[in-house]
């Protein structure tokens, strides 16, 4: 369970988030959709304790992220695939994560297989990885501890069509197993293909949220999204 309640975030005179509220239920995938700069990453950073809100509150599994017992095991996060240490191998990145979570080394082998990295690829330094390989590694790192919640920021970036299909199937399987999945993207088509619910955000404000069919109401979801974001831009002008 993820819940954001009336979150606002102000940087000097810039309001990055403005009274943002939504929740993600267990067993579901919520697509967090908005253009670049809409506030998605800021909301996710607040959710996992990397930034403090100016007002409002965010909880995961009923508690603030920092108050969870071993939060890294309960909440899997991928906020920036490029943040992995370029001098370490993929296997070393996963092994260090497993050590921090007190997991057996066998879990590293399971994750390498799960995300589709070959043994040779896992033994290469991350600095030589393509963006798609970094994304697979980042998703694998998020899944090390068998988390109950997943928070993924633009996980489809750099994935080829086969990789995107793999990711959709994986996230659907995890949600069907009871996981709460929050997936951000600026790509409407990608979110629409995998999400049960969508939260649309623009200029730091929630523009609409609900099931895909509720939001479209006989129109294409793209038309609905474009109209909402255009209205947000006009209101801010």
Q: What's the CATH class label?
A: Alpha Beta
Kindly estimate the percentage of residues that lie in beta strands according to DSSP: 25-35%
CATH homologous superfamily identity: P-loop containing nucleotide triphosphate hydrolases
Low-pLDDT sequence parts: none
- Percentage of residues assigned to helices: 25-40%
CATH topology: Rossmann fold
Number of strand segments: 9
Shape: globular
Provide a count of the helices: 10
Structural class: alpha/beta
Name the helix and strand elements from N-terminus to C-terminus, one letter apiece: EEEHEHEHHHHEHEHEEHH
Going across the biggest sheet, name each strand in turn.
5-6-7-3-8-9
How many domains in all?
Answer: 1
Q: How would you characterize the largest beta sheet? A: 6 strands, mixed
Q: If you average the pLDDT, what whole number results?
A: 91
CATH architecture descriptor: 3-Layer(aba) Sandwich
Radius of gyration: 18 Å
Instruction: Tell me the span between the first and last alpha carbons.
Output: 36 Å
């Amino acid at each position: 369970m993820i819940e954001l309640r009336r979150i606002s975030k102000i940087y000097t005179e810039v309001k990055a988030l403005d009274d943002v509220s939504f929740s993600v239920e267990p067993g579901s995938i919520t697509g967090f959709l908005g253009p670049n700069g809409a506030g998605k990453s800021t909301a996710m950073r607040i959710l996992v304790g990397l930034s403090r809100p100016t007002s409002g509150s965010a909880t995961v599994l009923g508690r603030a992220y920092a108050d969870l017992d071993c939060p890294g095991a309960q909440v899997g996060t991928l906020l920036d695939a490029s943040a992995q240490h370029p001098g370490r191998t993929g296997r070393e990145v996963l092994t260090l994560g497993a050590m921090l979570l007190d997991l057996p080394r066998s879990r590293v082998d399971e994750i390498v297989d799960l995300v589709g990295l070959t043994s040779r690829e896992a033994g290469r330094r991350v600095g030589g990885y393509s963006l798609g390989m970094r994304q697979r590694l980042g998703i694998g790192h998020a899944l090390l501890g068998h988390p109950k919640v997943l928070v993924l920021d633009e996980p489809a970036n750099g994935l080829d069509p086969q990789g995107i299909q793999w990711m959709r199937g994986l996230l659907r399987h995890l949600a069907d197993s009871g996981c709460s999945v929050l997936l951000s993207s600026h790509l409407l088509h990608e979110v629409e293909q995998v999400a049960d619910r969508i939260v649309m955000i623009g200029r730091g404000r929630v523009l609409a949220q609900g099931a895909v069919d509720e939001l479209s109401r006989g129109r294409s979801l793209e038309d609905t999204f474009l109209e909402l974001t255009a209205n947000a831009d006009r209101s801010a002008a």
